[in-house]
Amino acid sequence: MFISFFFACYFMYLSQMINIVLIGSGNVAVQLAGAFSKSKKVAVLQRFSRSNANDGYFDKNIPVIHDLKELKQADIYIIAIADKSISDISKQLKFTQGLVVHTAGSMPLDALLCAANKGVLYPLQTFSKEQPIRFKNIPLALETEKKEDYKLLEALAKTLSAKIYPLDTGQRRKLHIAAVFANNFANHMFKIAKDICDENNFSFDILKPIILETANKMERMSPMEAQTGPARRNETHVIEKHVAELDPDKKEMYTLISRSIIKTYHP
Amino acid sequence: MFISFFFACYFMYLSQMINIVLIGSGNVAVQLAGAFSKSKKVAVLQRFSRSNANDGYFDKNIPVIHDLKELKQADIYIIAIADKSISDISKQLKFTQGLVVHTAGSMPLDALLCAANKGVLYPLQTFSKEQPIRFKNIPLALETEKKEDYKLLEALAKTLSAKIYPLDTGQRRKLHIAAVFANNFANHMFKIAKDICDENNFSFDILKPIILETANKMERMSPMEAQTGPARRNETHVIEKHVAELDPDKKEMYTLISRSIIKTYHP
Known about the structure:
- The structure is a homodimer.
- Chain A has nine helices and eight strands.
- In chain A, helix 8 runs antiparallel to helix 9 (248-265).
- Chain A starts with a helix and ends with a helix.
- By secondary structure, chain A is an alpha/beta fold.
- Chain A has an eight-stranded mixed β-sheet.
- At the A-B interface, helix 5, helix 6, helix 7 and helix 9 of A face helix 5, helix 6, helix 7 and helix 9 of B.
């Protein structure tokens, strides 16, 4: 009796496992493979790779295939490849069982051209192969074509992170634009600040604490409330003095962003 | 003999103390008073205030004066008041002993019109009265008119922070401009990102981890190395798609900053 109880438990356990197949061998695939390999709720049945690229970064226990015909049946197939190849590769997936998701923030759900149900699992973070990502705090934007698939994708996503956001294709496109401002453009402001430090022979280190505080403040207040500085106070004499000291490129940027801040606070 | 040894030690201790007077009652004065009051190496002899503003935020043990004629002799007089009043108040300081410093990033050393030696102690951080600042990690930019005063000002600064930077008036002016980019303008990028979230009915929370990571990266690499995104990769088709979705103000900003990033990485 004990043995049959044991098997019953074991089969229940197996039935709760989410079986996945990973398609791709880039940064996102490497990071997802690493995270899912550690999960007790997810079994990575296979990974598909066109080449042997990045083989060294993957868990050796995950079987590799190089031919899509060898794909096993799984609950979820995750396509983590370059944006432009998603349609091409998904077109070759002729099976109708299971859920096929891509991981690209800027691609619509219907970039997937597979026969099976479609979805998106978009981790909003910059990835590199070398450094293992701690998914725990990384927001995951989820979308499924069919409502009934959402719970399964959510269950998979929850094994990675507590920060789950249902976002449709349109919202995800906007999120991508918002992230360009919040990440790329903010970083470019840091770049310009560093250039000014370098040109004037003092260390960029002096700015690092205020950069960190600027980001940390977002946990306590909105960016609208957090704003300070000459444009916030509409101090045109300070702005003019600053502009006079900048080269043409920085001048144009300083003027435009200051004008936008002034417009926000002094409409 | 024990008693005379005790007194000798006590007098040595006293002679090592830095005696200061605080002039002003704004945020910076409140924060400096709080930090110096806790220091065993600094004695705050007095503080001067024109009104009773913010009295509740100051340590009750610091004697307040309202007339500059009552000023005691000190090693360092710190003027922490609005930029535009620094010249006016310093003009009224007729004594020639001691060092008079202001705390304004955007004001030159010679905004001080006092008879005594001049200097600047500029804490690079945004201040508010309500929240006690932990000076330990706040960079302090120091300048003295006379070389021989630098050590004293540095000794005082070191009681607050380990991050001390000697910067002359010209460098400090540039630092202020650099900080506008690194703090005010980066924050405005967060503001625009939040607007996009709000307009499309998803939470700005989804962007907070990437904002924090953007700032944290500065500890590991330069902003030049940290850059990612469509402009970094010169993906004009993505940029055009994004621009097409933005209102005129955001469009202009997106275009200009993207152009600047492209110019940086694809000259």
